[in-house]
Amino acid sequence: MCYEKNLEHFNLMSTNIIKKNLNTKFLGKKIYYYQKTNSTNDDVWNLFKNENANNGTLVVSDNQKRGKGRRSNQWYSEPGLNLTFSFLLNLKISREKLGLISLLVGVGICKGIYHSVKLNACLKWPNDIILDNKKVGGILIESKEKKKKIQLCVGIGINVNSDISKFPIKLQKSSISLISKNIEPIQRELLLSSILNFIESEYLNNFKNVTSNWLFYCSHVNKNVKFHHQDRIISGEFLGITNKGYAKIKENNKTKVFSAGELLL
Ligand code: BTN
Description:
Blueprint: H1 15-20, E1 31-34, H2 40-49, E2 58-61, E3 67-68, E4 74-75, E5 83-91, H3 98-117, E6 122-124, E7 128-131, E8 134-146, E9 149-158, H4 169-172, H5 188-205, H6 210-217, E10 224-229, E11 232-241, E12 247-251, E13 254-258, E14 262-263
Parallel strand pairs: 1-2
Antiparallel strand pairs: 2-5, 3-4, 5-9, 6-7, 7-8, 8-9, 10-11, 10-14, 11-12, 12-13
The structure holds biotin (BTN).
The site of biotin has 20 residues, from helix 2, strand 3, strand 5, strand 8 and strand 9.
């Protein structure tokens, strides 16, 4: 691929460039960069355990070897080409609104991608980032509760400059990379700063509109979908989400609400 020639100078990310382009109040104010790691989510929890992580502390890595995905899947990423990062959030919201955080993060990611590279990514419930009907990114949120305080680790993986034909075969059909729609290699630091700027802004200024904003970016509202719930595949119309962010699906003329499950691409 012709873009590979130009990638050398993007191979290692610069935290200075990330910081210079951040206009956040707390998100990414402290950055830990690891050239190589197993999982940035695990890194955040380790920092937290050793009291080196405040609200918004960011861990970013150029080479995540054992990325964790949702539903015990692995998150695959190639060294030096994509974004793999996690941050800590100390929450001031009630437990029942927790599910809304992943929706809000998805909205921030779509806005950040558009602002930085002018591509229209969209969302698949609950929190897959989609481009051209394929998965371009994912969010894994893990939580801990200590003395009634909720801490979240928000982990985000985005395929940025990867050539998907080099991905494991089983992922190739369902995955896409932002570069497939861009002529130039994408500077990951600028994309990352933009995503963090928008996530924080959604969190601080736009929480009350999260469900309507999420629906704006949803790729499958009012469409027929196949939905994997427990051991069953449900076919029905995706009607939208509840005020807690649960999926509303009409199956055989009955509207059902699901707090978990997976929409099939
Ligand atoms: C998904 O399955 O869609 C969620 C993928 C989340 C992957 C990211 S990459 C950075 C962070 N660290 C991890 O180990 N996982 C998340």
